[in-house]
């Protein structure tokens, strides 16, 4: 079974030694993804904009891996404030409302103060 590594071009991937996603067989594991716009290395100020950037980066990684959002079976959402839940749920509903993967949201600190949300997903196409 081959292993394929996917990069988003983030400088963090090489520095921290990880891939945006790893494909192993029928599975695709997408690393925790924050709201950076990797083309400009800027971070939006609102959690809504960051969530949309996270989902765009995740969708791009899935496509590079030969998967799509409809293959997503598990999501982990990490937010820095519980009040963000009501602000990002509609965005997740737009993206995953028909797919309905298993999901968990955790309130926690993230590694940089500008990071308000991080999302990781697992996809399966078997």
From TrEMBL:
Annotated InterPro entries: RutC-like_sf, YjgF/YER057c/UK114
Protein name stated in the entry: Endoribonuclease L-PSP
Protein origin, superkingdom: Bacteria
One Pfam family it belongs to: Ribonuc_L-PSP
Coiled-coil regions, chain positions: none
Protein's organism: Sinorhizobium medicae
Gene3D superfamilies, sorted: RutC-like
């Amino acid at each position: 079974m081959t292993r394929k590594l996917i990069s988003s071009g983030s400088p963090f991937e090489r520095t921290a030694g990880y891939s945006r996603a790893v494909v192993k067989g029928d599975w695709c594991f997408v690393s925790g993804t924050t709201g950076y716009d990797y083309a400009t290395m800027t971070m939006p100020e609102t959690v809504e904009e960051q969530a949309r950037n996270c989902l765009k980066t995740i969708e791009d990684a899935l496509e590079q891996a030969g998967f799509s959002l409809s293959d997503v079976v598990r999501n982990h959402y990490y937010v820095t404030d519980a009040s963000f839940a009501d602000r990002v749920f509609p965005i997740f509903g737009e993206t995953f409302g028909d797919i309905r993967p298993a999901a968990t949201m955790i309130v926690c600190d993230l590694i940089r103060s500008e990071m308000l949300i991080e999302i990781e997903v697992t996809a399966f196409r078997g």
